[in-house]
Structures
1.
Amino acid sequence: MSDSPFATEDSDLTDGDRQNAGSGVDPFAAAPTVGAEPVDSTDSADAPGASAPFSDDPIAVAPAPADPAPAPNDAIPGHGEALPAPADAVPTPPEGIALAEGTGLSTDTVTAPANPVPPPPEVPLPDPGPGPGPIVTPDAGAPAVATSTVPQAPPRKLRPLPRIIAVANQKGGVGKTTTTVNLGAALAEQDHRVLVIDLDPQGNATTGLGINSRELDHSIYDVLLNDVDLEDCIEPTSVLNLFLAPASLDLAGAEIELVSVMSRETRLRRAIEQVASDYDYVLIDCPPSLGLLTVNALAAAGEVMVPIQCEYYALEGLGQLMRNVDLVQRNLNPRLELSLIVLVMYDGRTKLGEQVATEVREHFGERVCRNVIPRNIRLSEAPSYGQPITVFDSSSKGAVAYRELAREVHHGSA
């Protein structure tokens, strides 16, 4: 061991120190500066500008590039503006806002950019027109209820059975007989007992139901003038539950003969009162006039049904019929009322039919039946075979229309 005060015992050296001592490296030498260019003692004097070879020192760091790239925010010479940041760069949050760890997102609310992209202009939608109605919610907890904007027809007055209905219109050829026969057959098809009284001297309802008046012993003429009971005059038809009080040619002179008869306006009413309880519906086919036969029908009935052809002339005589109904109501039959108006011979292809239907509905309101009877050739052919339309052609448009009309009429019965 040396006597020098700076001598160090060999036992105090670490294994690394001994290794460095054996390799000739001074353990107390300062570490090279990071980024400094290493100097080779053998070549630095001869070639000062030569590049340094790779060093065996594990601490040595590769030299920094001579000309570093300008930062993204450096100004471009000659423009005075800063380069925009890359698209995928995360913006630096303002002071006081911390980033969530591992996400690169701010824990505070993200502020919208100063110049947001304007939204696309709104394109107005076409008006869809009246829909089924708004959804009305009266209370917060109550379920939504759909309310239709289409006006609903108010319910008709319920009338007890039996119902005695006079089918009247002083204009001829408007479908009185066709409506009486086919409505009666449709009601009978729905299990209602129906009596049809043919009060028209032409006797079309009689032949339309397949009955030959020349072969009968009694007709409605005998009931009015010879005091024959109505029950003895009634004839069954080929339709179940449908019965007929037929007319005859003698009825043509009945109005003249009734002038001198006592209680001439109420003779039919007294005859119907004897059999009314046996039927659900009594339909009276009136003649195309406002004479004594029609007055007898109005005095006996509780309701008036008016068929109206969807043409202009059919509306002209309606006012006179309304006045006669009012006279009978005030003097002979206080319970009489105009309850039903049926639109017949309707042709939806013409504007005239639509205009007539609109005017009638606006004037008479709820008394106009919702179901209309269309023009149908099968309705014209059925009487020549002595059958109602429900038997002659059960699937035709006319048969379907009269069935729907029968349901609507019966819907007003109590």
2.
Amino acid sequence: MSKPTVEQEARGQGAGSKGELPSIPLQPNEEARGQGAGCKGELPSTPLQPNEVGQEENPPSPCSPASYPPAPLPLLETQKKTRSLPPGLIVRLGKFVWSTMWHLMMGKLAPRNQSGEYVRPNSQFRQAISTEAGNPYQPELGRYRLYVGLGCPWAHRTLVVRALKGLSDVIEVAIASPSSNEGIWVLDRSEEGCRTLPELYQLAKPGYNGRSTVPVLWDKQTQTIVNNESAEIIVILNSAFNEFALNPTLDLYPADLKETIDRWNDKIYHAVNNGVYRCGFAQTQAAYDTACNELFATLDEIDATLGTSRYLCGDLVTLADVRLFTTLFRFDIVYYGLFKCNRRRIQDYANLGPYLRDLYQLPGVAATCDLEAVKRDYYGNLFPLNPGGIIPNGPDVTSLLEPHDRETLGKKPALQK
């Protein structure tokens, strides 16, 4: 049965009522007349005034129908008003409570500096896999495992390089998903006797008290984490497993372009890869404005560069393109709305839009892109940014399969070997 309205309650028409009298607080003059709810034939307890004494020999029972005339409309309106707090007070109280809780939650989710700017903590495991003598982590077939989250852009870049290099049969993948209730990454299936990523980190380093994040490059032989910094993992995947790779001659980090790649990487990391997070996780207006301006200034610069160059460093795909791609793929889906990066969509840029389609259509790349996981992980798990947890239906990303016509800008195949 539906909840009665305030007016129905005032008229005794509420759910479950059986003609009972309303429990409206009575005015002093009504109490004096014996019109109090719940009386049992008693005379009113309010003493009569001297001029009223003896005026009625047989006063009517306070419970008789005649004692309860219909409440006048002005009284009902008065009662409805007195049943709720002033709107202004409710709004101020709600804003205070939510703002306080929001800052507490954001402090755990996204560490900030004194200016309210998001500061990303450094990764803690930074070893490499190589054939150097004495290195405990030698390249071997089937020895290593990647732990990734399909919605995470940092983990996504490792999947892209793994696909481009043809390492699917060399390095296995385990999926972790963020838990909105636990606030941690939970493995889709138990690995190494662990259910969650923090348990895996503890297995690698007992007593570890840092953040437990993806991606993780795991050594099954020594039961430890080799590296959890995505920028370094993709360098390892590019070169350490060439003897097992299907595309061993593909070099995404060639020596003659390293300086240019590194320069783009530094710029893009600060303003774009991490820049969207600096917008979404900003805790002051000034911090947001700074991050947003830097983000779109850099996107404008990239768009201008792509007007005459197929990729960031020329005719060939490099790690700089891979690192930019995973942010661009999520931009219109998540960052534009949820992270307030809404000055312009990627698809609205003359060159960035086709460039995104070009990268998406490279062999194996589309298979690493999980739109539903991206929406679920961001909208469904970032409670401080989306407390209702509602996940949007769109957008339709089939447009990424439309022709990009960027081949005319390059003189070599995108993945020249």
3.
Amino acid sequence: MRGLAQMDERIVKIERVVFGGKGLSRDLEKVTFVPFTLPDEMVRIRLTKQHADYQEAEAISIEKPNPDRVAPDCAYFGICGGCQMSHATYEKQVQIKRQILEETLRRNQIQFPRIETHTEKPFGYRHRAQFKYDARNRRLGFFAGGSNQVVDIHECLCLTPGLNQLLKSLRSTFCSQEIPEVKEIECYETDRGHTAAFFQPALPEAFRKQFSIHERSDLTISFRRFHYPVHPKIFLQVNPGMWRAMIQEVESHYAGKNLPSALELYCGAGFFTAPLSAFFDHITACEENSEAIQFAKENHGLTNVNWIRAKAEEYVFPARVQAIILDPPRSGLHKNVQRQLLERKPEWITYISCDCTTFSRDLTKLEPFYDIRRIAMMDLFPQTYHFEIIALLEKRKEPLQNLINRAVR
């Protein structure tokens, strides 16, 4: 077995980092993906897994490091599955993410303007965490990379100080005894420093008094005059430090346009809807989560927004609407949403995405009729390969195929 392992060791050059945070090499007979590597590095690897048209490997040693390689600040990096890019300077992380977005768009032959980049602090940004609990081994933390084994975490550098203090408090109970009923603890900190913890399954009665101060469902986070719910059943972006940049980016799409109406799909509890209400005479906001819609109706006090509970793929678009704002899940736009977009063809589309692959896939359907006027990469998740994209699309005066046909003639 040792001989086989040695035969599987090679030295390869990393060409680039791809979506998912792994380095890509073309030096061997198959494309090889190697985690925790950077462009232009020479890396001694060991092959770990074979697939039909690619293979995976682990880095044994970095023979020639990238100048932007650094020693990770986190003691759990490479073991915990939460972060993938802490071996690079933060500036390099941002550069890699922007390049990943550019390469994905070019691969799909999508024309785009210069990508704007928005960043915030690289650590201490997460106001929400989902801790995993292994009662038998008394571990509280996060899953290991590619595994459901719990890595025991004493402190996470990506969390706010308040959440790390809450983690310390939880550890004093959950790591000193077995509480097998609990598998997961979702924790939050608000902008006022209040913390909350939600236990799944529910915390046993014997421990409820001890944690009653944390089991709160009435907490909110404020932005401008609006309040957003802090609760596992309602989605909210994990990095409040980037909220201002995200909302201002979307607001810039419609400043000065004086459009009468907009439709927003996947609106959640009105994260974008509420501030955008000042830019339109009327907004129809659609969301399938009943708790999110109910919260928005009861708390935002907006008379020019019609909140509708419905699945985006089942909702019938209004006959005429000037702008559509889309913030779909990672899987991207449902085919029924794509179809209605191409039937209605609003003048403007704002597309917010957390996955550049499905974002580019959806744009290939829209690009024959739309130009990308503005695109921004929002680094909401430093130390990881994840990022958000916000793009503004404007309807072409003439479909692209008509222009091509005329040029050919």
